[in-house]
Amino acid sequence: MKTTVKNSEPANEGFIIKSIESTGEVCIKFTAEEMVQLGIAEGDKFSIDYHEDGSIRLEKYVTMDLDIADWSREVLEMLVSSSCKEDISINEVINNILIETLEHKELLSKRMSRVKHH
Prior knowledge:
Oligomer: single chain
Structural class: alpha+beta
Radius of gyration: 19 Å
Number of helices: 3
Largest sheet: 4 strands, mixed
Number of strands: 4
Strand order of the largest sheet: 2-1-4-3
Order of helices and strands: EEHEEHH
Strand content: 15-25%
Helix content: 40-55%
Low-confidence stretches: 6-12
């Protein structure tokens, strides 16, 4: 399967045609030159958007450092409880909360945009 891979970073805008092997996992190998061109490094994680034309868009996750020292005991207990209940790490719980919050914010923003245009 041939797939177009596009970096979402505006400064590194470009397309690369890659062959994707069906292994049950999504795995795309880049040469060192492609990694430099796309501004990516080994170990980077991406969200993947599949398009009807067979292309995919990789969007690199950004890393955030959070200082939980000031978080309330209730919040910390909720994180530990969710981690145990879902059998995932606390980092994954926080990541899921951030994703849900950002998706909700994006949805609200789109709705507000439609309201302004009517």
